[in-house]
Amino acid sequence: MHTSPGYSFAEKLRQELDTPLFNPLLKKWVGRGELDYEVYLKTPQLLSLQSGETERVAHDELMFQVVHQAQELWLKLASRETVELVAELDRDALWAASARLERVVRIVRGLSSELGVLETMTPDTYQVIRRSLGNGSGQESPGYNMFRKAAEGLALAFERLLARRGQTVLGIYRGGPDDLKRLCEQLLDVDEAFQGWLHAHFQLVRRTIGVDRSVKALDGLPTQVLAGRMTLPLFRSLWDARVELTASWRREGGHAPGASREGCMEGAMSAYAPPMVSGACPMHAGLSSAPRGDS
Question: Does 61-247 carry CATH code 3.40.630.10?
Answer without folding.
Answer: no
